[in-house]
Amino acid sequence: MKNSSALTNYFAWKNSANENLNFADEEVPVHNAKVNKKIKTSIWKHSRQVLKTDELQQQASKWFPVIEPILRLYGIPEDFKYIPLLESGFNKKARSPRGAVGIWQFMPGTAREYGLKVGHGKDERLNTRRSTIAACKYIKELYGEFHSWTLAAAAYNAGSPRVHKAITRKNKGNYFYMHLNRETDRYVYKLVAMKEVIDKPVENGYGTVWANLQPTETLSIN
Q: Which class for 38: exposed (0-12), middle (13-18), buried (19 or more C-beta within 10 A)?
């Protein structure tokens, strides 16, 4: 049955970001206009992709209980569980064009450096538990280098040299005020957005809103 006013799926988003947003208990400075805009946009982009979000929630429910105890064992904040969700969607067979493999998207050299066997018909990057242990060792080392969990996450994406180069007296090593490459500049924002949308979609108003709206209309909730 055709209906000219078909039911269209729209997504609610807040006009101002949650003041309590954080990554690994490190505050997202939403009082800063640029930061507020970027985190708000990131949350909106994630919340509007309902089909993908539903799939990610299913993967999170399956794999978070597996990796959370490992993170705790190594003293890694629980928020780092969103890295494999962002990197691979917990697809163990995920492979990047550059050769990164597995849920944590390890390159061969980095994987070997942190204890994973790669080569001669074996690739432990595909093993969820072993690759998570390797990721914990890597993240812990990055934290020891930067003394910041947000910078450790940024360095996980970009590598330590790029992050060190971006630290200046003006930004004082605060990720949210640093000038980084495009991908890394959005990386922690995406992790925070996933944290909000995957774990707290309804209470924060990021859930799906169904309404009879024309495609040109915009739905905004204060």
A: buried
Averaged pLDDT for residues 131-142: 98
Neighbours of 66 (CB within 10 A): 13
pTM of the model: 0.82
Is the separation of the CB atoms in 70 and 133 below 8 Å? yes
Whole-angstrom Cα distance, residue 112 to residue 105?
A: 13
CA contacts within 13 A on the Cβ side of 130: 15
Would you state the pLDDT for residue 57?
A: 85
For helices 128-146 and 50-73, what crossing angle results, to 10°?
70
**What residues contact residue 186 under an 8 Å CB cut-off, 6+ apart?**
38, 42
Beta bridge partners of 23: 26
CB 174 within 8 A of CB 146: no
Distances in Å between the Cα of 111 and the Cα atoms of 71, 73, 83, 116, 125 are 17, 20, 16, 5, 7
Question: How many of the other CB atoms lie within 10 Å of CB of 47?
Answer: 22
* Cα 210 to Cα 52: distance, rounded to the nearest angstrom: 17
